User: Fold these one by one.
Assistant:
Number 1:
Amino acid sequence: MSNDARRVMVLGAGDIGRRVFHELAQSAHDRRVHLAGRDEETILRAANLARYCGLQRGFSPAVSHSVTDLSDVARTAERITAFAPDVIFLAASYQSWWVISTLPKDMFQRLYAANYGPWLPMHLVPVMKAMEAVRLSGSQAVVVNAAYPDAVHPALAAVGLSPDIGIGNVANNVPGIQAVVTDTLGCATEEVEVRLVAHHYVSHRLSRSGDSGPARMGLAVLREGRDITAELDIPALLGRLPQEYRRTGGLAGHTMTAASALSVLEPLVDGRDALVHAPGPDGVPGGYPVAIEDGKLRLRLPEGMTTEEALAINVSGQAADGIRAIRPDGTVVFEPDAMNILTGELGYACDEMPLSEAEGRAREIAERFTAYRTRAAR
């Protein structure tokens, strides 16, 4: 391992963090990979597992680990400074999206109807703390975030704390669309390119219903560089996603999210160009096709689509996800219908949330959800 090896730090040792850390270590590329998390036993075992699996496969991964809690901004900044990463992957949330799926089915379905927006504080606060640590450390690393980037990034952009780019969400349906088009046309996979503009809400909707519901989406399909979208029956093709092209979901389906993360992280870590799909690039809401070129990020929208049109598409998805607006100062305004579900189920209510109130709101949601789950267990 050379002294010039590129360095990537994974902050957060939950399911996604450990999966991505493990895969980053399984490579012949010249990398140093570091896992930072709260629990010493968890991260020690994860680091050793990644090392041993690499050795088993003929690699010699340079892995390391350290203990920190994102609530301790100064200590996290020290960990970042000590490792000096080129890329940081944030994989931290106070409550991952799949947790409500562990409830009894009727309770889960009622809460699921609120969509993702009202839960925003649970994802925003740990990312905000991590970004405060990044700024305190003086690190110039590219920061990639896994926790609801579609909404977290535009809220934090107001105070200069948005990560550079997100992962997952819009990206997770692109391979399925590519597969169904490839199979329909009977052509080679590499001939087909998909460019999708869509919010987190649409991503979840596509895999379950095969359409974008009340939200808008932008989709272009290219074959050998030529736009063939108008020649395809797009609604019929998308309708096959939850049918014969359905895939494993839930926690086990995190394999797809980890793959989407790696599609962004590996080009950044290894210094190669790529066309990817990602949410929240440069602090904008929703998901887009993004070109990684010389370590820089720029939108690569479908031909003829303006940035303003792409933004409007994603704002429609933002509303469907339960967020009416994100103001220039970072204040988040929630959709009443979505919030009313959390009020009815958890007793939690919030019309508007300035960033200064986010931490208190996250604690309140956590406490109310814990009590709700306790009642369910009785």
Number 2:
Amino acid sequence: MRILTILVAAATALGTSAHAAPADTRPPNAPDQRPAFPGQTRAPKPDRATAVTLTPVAQGLQNSWGMAFLPDGRILVTEKAGALRIVSTDGKPGRPVGGVPEVAFGGQGGLLDVALGPEFATDRMIFLSFSERRARGTNGTSVARGRLVETGDMARLEAVEVIFRQEPAWTNQLHFGSRLVFAPDGKLFVTVGERSDRETRVQAQDLSSGLGKVFRINPDGTIPPDNPFVARAGALPSIWSYGHRNMQSAALDRQGRLWTVEHGPRGGDELNRPQAGLNYGWPEVTYGLEYSGARMGRGLTQREGTEQPAYYWDPVIAPSGMALYSGTLFPDWRDAFLVGGLATQDLVVLRMKDDRVVGEERIPVGARVRDVRMGPDGAVYLLTEQDRGGSRILRLTPN
């Protein structure tokens, strides 16, 4: 396969100056809005950018959405139409894995994220998020688990069961989320969307609704007794945090804490560290505008009782996929968050200090980046979307 080399600069990044230009110099959609604290948006780019090489490692995929490394280096990859494939170490996608639940494919819906269970080495359990058909033409985000069984070149899921269903169901094909992240204690975080429409997005503030939330459940779907709303009458006990829009990026930091990036509308993509029981504001508080350019609600960017994002973007990057970099190939990226940019067609590198973004770098990819993972070799792997629905996996290494 042809190797694509991107020479962003002559040397790897050596630092970030507080007086450097931001990574994004496009005019904001909402120039009258002001950040709540210095560095909350448009963090400086590095003094010297990172030179990288992008090497295609797998092609022939279609409408792929999520990926996860198996212990032997092979990669599980989802395709929105409902296929789960195992990509071999030489880059060949295998036949669809059998036993995958039926999905409601269309729009933003279909087979979405994939994650290995915390005891995969012994029980071979994998977890899938997907949009599921419901009664009377509705649909919603669900999570299923099943045991991966391989015989020769054939693979299937056995003992498949749905362990989580987002309610209420809705009729459109928008804002399903969804990422799956296992915490160090074995609990499963599930991110979802609020289904976009005016009738549904307000339910992100409603604790009796499963729209616009981060959920925390046990691997069997039961509810951890220390969840924040277990004892509150009328609240869903599976909720961890609320007031979110559409979270398609999620990862743990080095301390094992959950971070997410959610889509804003016209502006207002947000990096958050969702904490138990806290309200992140949507749709009443946002740095975004309606797609028409009108203000969102009362146009509030701050309100008592809601949390500020650790960082936001205006204009948007359209985030999807996220990983913490903990390898050695890119020493300047150590403990940085790597976020896929759909709209910007790049990899967004967020350098962190004391839970704040102190630098942002853009690595051009030339395709929509749907998912990001660090491989066992310390390289960064990008799942990209090409023209006409084609997808491929790229390996990113220092140049």
